[in-house]
Every structure is written in structure tokens, then in C-alpha cells.
Design brief:
The protein is built from 8 helices and 11 strands. With 239 residues, the protein is of the alpha+beta class. It has 2 domains: 5-66, Orthogonal Bundle (Arc Repressor Mutant, subunit A), CATH 1.10.10; 70-232, Chorismate lyase-like (Chorismate lyase), CATH 3.40.1410.10. It has a 6-stranded antiparallel β-sheet with strand order 5-6-7-10-9-8. Strands 1-3-2 form a 3-stranded antiparallel β-sheet, with helices on one face. The mean pLDDT is 91. Pfam families: GntR, UTRA.
Length: 239
């Protein structure tokens, strides 16, 4: 196979994909091979090239689908609301609560929240979707004194940012954030419906009350790199 042939096929398919809405099923390897008169190995290389460019995603047993990455900007001024940020980007977010239990606050969490180790904290685990695609999964640590009845609040409101505002009476703002690109382990891969070892963002964020600078909750979130483009913005924008 000529090294450039699969790239030519990928370029042709890329131009066609640009006109399709995300989630559209497209030809698989066999159909691509037949259409372009190449071996299945060449067709597979072309589809893999599209995957590397985050233009398609393959779902085991279902096929190959067009993909669109959503920008998730992280700034010092934007409210740390996952759902609102995605809506602003034109996506349709949905969040499913996996568990919400009150536990003694671990030492590492207490250190980041400037709280007493062993004090009551809600450990909230959720999986979030964008346009019905599993996009993030993780844990949020919310001191029980901030929102005493968090499980009840989550039954009527999906957004933690909104709950903290309405029930806790605080305005969340980012205090500290750290992100790294990691390989998904088995648990993360299962939650995000991706293969083990697939690239994911791991984002840790401490959010504080904008008025008092008191830390109010900690987020530890795994984000699919093929679904979300994490964008960091710092300082004043160009004039």
C-alpha cells in the first residue's frame, strides 16, 4: 500500500463528513475498501486516520459514526458549570447521577477544600452526556454543610452549579484547576464507553464562593478527548 493512498482516502472522506451532522453512521472498512478499490488494510488505515483527527468514532458492534468535538473552555471568569458551558457551545448536555452518599471527608479532599478531615461531605459520582454521547465521568466532593440535602436537590435539578447557588447561597467561581492527558483505565473506559487506554482528560477543579473566596466543592472529572476539546484561556484576550 502506498503510504499516501490511505491519506488520500481519509481526505476524501473528511470532506464528505464535514457536511454530515454528528452521529451519522458512515461506511465501515469493507465498504470503504470496495468503494476505493483498495485492500481492507488500506481502508482500515484511512478510518484510523479519521479517528486520529477526531472526525469519527467507532462503536463496537454498531459501526462508524461522524463525530464533533465540543469546546469546553476553562477560564478564571467563566462560571464552572459543566452543563451551561456545553449549552453555550451548542451541545445538548444530560447528566446521570450514579451515586450520592455522605462520607467522612478524606484527608486529600479536606486539604484542597480547607476543611476538617473527617467532616461530612457528599461524594457525588455522575456520568455526563453531550448529544447522548457519554462525554465525562467523575466525582464531586460537596461539604454537607454547603448543601445539606443534596440527594433530594439532585432529583429535581441536574446542575450542581445551580443547586449550590440556589440552596447554598453562593456564587461558584474557579479557585484552582489542573488538567492532564491520561490513558483511560478499565473503570473510566467502561463509564465513558471507550476502549481501555484511550486518551482522556483528567481535570481537577476547586471552586470557591466568589464573594468570600471560601472553597465550596471539588471536582475530579474524566473527559473523553474525542468528544470534548478542553481549551484553557488565561489573561486578557487580544484586543
Amino acid at each position: 500500500m502506498a503510504a499516501s493512498r490511505y491519506r488520500e482516502i481519509a481526505a476524501a472522506l473528511s470532506a464528505e463528513i464535514a457536511a454530515l451532522p454528528p452521529g451519522t453512521k458512515i461506511d465501515g472498512e469493507l465498504a470503504v475498501a470496495a468503494r476505493f478499490g483498495v485492500s481492507r488494510a488500506a481502508a482500515r488505515a484511512a478510518v484510523q486516520e479519521l479517528e486520529r483527527q477526531f472526525l469519527v468514532r467507532r462503536v463496537r458492534g454498531r459501526g462508524t459514526f461522524t463525530s464533533r468535538r465540543i469546546d469546553y473552555p476553562i477560564t478564571s471568569t467563566r462560571p464552572p458549570s459543566w452543563s451551561q458551558t456545553l449549552r453555550d457551545a451548542g451541545a445538548l448536555p444530560r447528566t446521570v447521577v450514579r451515586s450520592c452518599v455522605e462520607v467522612p471527608m478524606p484527608q486529600a479532599v479536606a486539604h484542597k477544600l480547607h476543611a476538617a478531615e473527617g467532616s461530612a461531605v457528599w461524594r457525588l459520582q455522575r456520568r455526563s452526556f453531550t448529544d447522548d454521547l457519554p462525554a465525562s465521568w467523575g466525582t464531586e466532593w460537596v461539604p454537607a454543610e454547603t448543601v445539606p440535602e443534596l440527594p433530594a436537590a439532585l432529583r429535581s435539578v441536574e446542575s450542581l452549579d445551580r443547586i449550590v447557588r440556589d440552596v447554598g447561597g453562593v456564587v461558584p467561581a474557579r479557585r484552582w484547576v489542573r488538567a492532564s492527558m491520561e490513558a483511560a483505565d478499565g473503570e473510566v473506559a467502561d463509564e465513558l464507553a471507550i476502549g481501555p487506554g484511550a486518551p482522556v482528560w483528567f481535570v481537577e477543579s476547586v471552586n470557591q464562593d466568589a464573594a468570600t473566596a471560601t472553597p465550596v466543592y471539588l471536582t475530579e472529572r474524566w473527559i473523553r478527548a474525542d468528544a470534548i476539546r478542553v481549551v484553557f484561556e488565561a489573561g486578557a484576550g487580544p484586543s
